[in-house]
């Protein structure tokens, strides 16, 4: 019993480290060179915990990994991109980091069954929720924004969208934990309500849309699992809803932007996308090397041209698909696309076959939306990428395969 508790606690600590919720209180909003060094070193314990999980059960970790061949291909291209990177040293460091980050997700999938995996993730969000309420109420100079959006809660992150977006994911995870573990359902539902409260206090409308989408996806899974007839009805309703939503976005985009409080450029994102596409055309097949663009401060590389054409400096492409194309070319983009398609196909099948869909499907739906405006795929030291990989590997290696 004690070893199992230790493994559970260690896994939660692993995810808490990847959440980045400790960065703002530790090094402040603008980390100097010393602060950046602390951030790089601070993730090493998370890597060690992931490797420790693999060492405890290497066979299942390997079985979980090999069932996602496109993930292997994707990480292979990440590492090979060092050979053509415009900044080989930067790509080498970040390729190592993203490989370790990815292996931590695989380790979680190989170690836990759906119910336990949901509770590991839920316990992580519970820690983050409690800490966020504490800093927002007791230490508002850290938890509440004062300049750009005065009064908006940001919790443990640098701006309100960080808190709101994280809690939208948290609601999906906590709700699944409640449904998969009825004995502790009241506990996890309580934290799910607290997560909603943080989304509202962040005043992030984008996060509110993500939350609503997560609720709809969870409802779809619950209805679809009631029987064949309910599943067919839910599927047709979902397809119709998606078609109507796309039509609304195309025909009344100005109304949609007004509801979100955004302009037509999505706060400058479309300018970044256009500028990035110009640079992509220069090296469409191989790209510039994994995450090499954003570390290039030479003043004449692609980062300088993207900044010039966009009119400001961005930290990433603000689109997970463009990010892969820019860094690893069409080969990297194809590998990511195939990995994503395989994962979503497995999630759709799980809706009708496996209760694990209660955990995976809502998260993946929200992830798909966020990935359109943020670079969260194949991201080193990123909480959301760890969760995505863990769920993707778990969908390919479900409980019935572990039991074999």
TrEMBL record:
Chain segments annotated as transmembrane: 37-56, 68-87, 93-110, 122-142, 162-180, 187-202, 208-224, 236-260, 330-352, 359-380
Membrane topology recorded in Swiss-Prot or TrEMBL: Multi-pass membrane protein
Coiled coil start-end: none
Keyword match Membrane: yes
Record-level Gene Ontology MF annotations: ligase activity
All residue ranges annotated as the O-antigen ligase-related domain in the record: 191-336
Keywords (A to Z) from UniProt: Ligase, Membrane, Transmembrane, Transmembrane helix
Keyword set includes Protein transport: no
Principal location: membrane
Origin: domain of life: Bacteria
Location(s) in or outside the cell: Membrane
InterPro entries: O-antigen_ligase-rel_domated, WaaL-like
UniProt protein name: O-antigen ligase family protein
Organism name: Caulobacter hibisci
């Amino acid at each position: 019993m004690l070893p199992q508790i230790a493994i559970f606690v260690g896994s939660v600590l692993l995810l808490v480290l990847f959440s980045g919720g400790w960065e703002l209180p530790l090094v402040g909003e603008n980390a100097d060179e010393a602060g950046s060094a602390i951030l790089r070193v601070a993730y090493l314990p998370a890597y060690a915990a992931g490797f420790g999980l693999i060492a405890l059960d290497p066979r299942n970790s390997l079985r979980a990994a090999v069932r996602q061949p496109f993930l292997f291909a994707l990480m292979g291209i990440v590492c090979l991109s060092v050979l053509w990177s415009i900044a080989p040293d930067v790509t080498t460091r970040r390729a190592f980091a993203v490989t370790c980050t990815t292996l931590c997700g695989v380790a979680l999938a190989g170690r836990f069954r759906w119910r336990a995996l949901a509770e590991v993730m839920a316990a992580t969000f519970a820690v983050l929720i409690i800490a966020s309420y504490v800093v927002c109420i007791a230490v508002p100079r850290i938890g509440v924004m004062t300049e750009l959006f005065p009064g908006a809660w940001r919790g443990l992150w640098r701006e309100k969208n960080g808190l709101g977006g994280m809690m939208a994911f948290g609601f999906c995870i906590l709700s699944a934990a409640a449904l998969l573990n009825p004995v502790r359902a009241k506990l996890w539902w309580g934290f799910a309500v607290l997560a909603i409260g943080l989304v509202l206090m962040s005043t992030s409308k984008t996060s509110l849309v993500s939350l609503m989408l997560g609720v709809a996806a969870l409802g779809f899974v619950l209805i679809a699992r009631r029987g064949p007839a309910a599943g067919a009805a839910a599927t047709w309703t979902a397809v119709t809803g998606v078609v109507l939503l796309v039509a609304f976005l195309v025909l009344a985009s100005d109304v949609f932007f007004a509801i979100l409080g955004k302009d037509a450029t999505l706060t400058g994102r479309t300018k970044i996308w256009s500028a990035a596409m110009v640079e992509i055309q220069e090296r469409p097949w191989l790209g510039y090397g994994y995450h090499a663009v954003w570390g290039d401060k030479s003043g004449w590389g692609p980062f300088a041209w993207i900044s010039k054409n966009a009119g400001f400096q961005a930290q990433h492409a603000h689109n997970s698909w463009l990010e892969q194309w820019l860094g690893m070319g069409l080969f990297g983009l194809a590998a990511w696309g195939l990995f994503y398609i395989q994962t979503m196909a497995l999630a759709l099948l799980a809706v009708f076959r496996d209760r694990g869909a209660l955990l995976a499907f809502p998260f993946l739906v929200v992830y798909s939306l966020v990935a359109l405006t943020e670079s969260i795929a194949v991201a080193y030291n990123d909480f959301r990428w760890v969760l995505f990989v863990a769920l993707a590997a778990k969908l390919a290696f479900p409980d019935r395969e572990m039991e074999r």
